[in-house]
Design goal:
Strand content: 25-35%
Shape: globular
Structural class: alpha+beta
Order of helices and strands: HEEHEEEEEEHEEEE
Helix content: 10-25%
CATH architecture of one domain: 2-Layer Sandwich
Largest sheet: 5 strands, mixed
Distance between the termini: 43 Å
CATH class of one domain: Alpha Beta
CATH superfamily of one domain: NADH:ubiquinone oxidoreductase Nqo5 subunit
CATH topology of one domain: Beta Polymerase, domain 2
Length: about 230
Amino acid sequence: MSATSTRTLADRLVTRFGSKLESVGVALGETTIQVPAEDLLEVAIALRDESEFHFEQLIDLCGVDYLNYGEDEWATSEEVSGQGFSRGVEGQGPGRFNWSERPRDVQMSRRFAAVLHLLSLEHNWRLRVRVFCVDDAVPRVPSVTSIWPGANWFEREAFDLFGILFKGHPDLRRILTDYGFVGHPFRKDFPLSGHVEMCYDEEKGRVIYQPVSIEPRVLVPRVIREEGYGA
């Protein structure tokens, strides 16, 4: 998509929806809008049905967890020598602090979001729509399955992996993990080792769950720096 066409799309979106859009951006040839959860269905129907947009196809829908957004677990300094190395910092990575007590001045005031990727075959346009969940404790956004039926499995995946609830979904249940799985594995505070592990029990003759035996640790590789690095 050319810069001219994306700019035209962004202008049309602002003109059509105005205050219903929290933000509109164009970067790297891609247009992104942010819509409040309460206005998502109204905006989505207009994007699909109105001739100036005609986004008849939903390509993808995914969840996002902005916990610890923009941070990492590297500890470096200007004084690092050729024999020094960067290392993981215990206690600072995702899952080792509460969202309300995160150790930074965050850019994202809300934790969970659902992101829709739309395609207009008629205009050869692509559009990204982001909608934040108002409640971090119980993340919830409206389901768009009534608008784009193909969102069905995508929303189930976002529910399974991120715990985002889609109000109005006809059959919201897990799709990748076991129905008895505890937690949501794509959340940033979900331990990499998980909560339980599976093994085959010879006596019972079946697979069983048991407490995970792996000791949690910071998984950041040691990097040996060459002599004179950063000089």
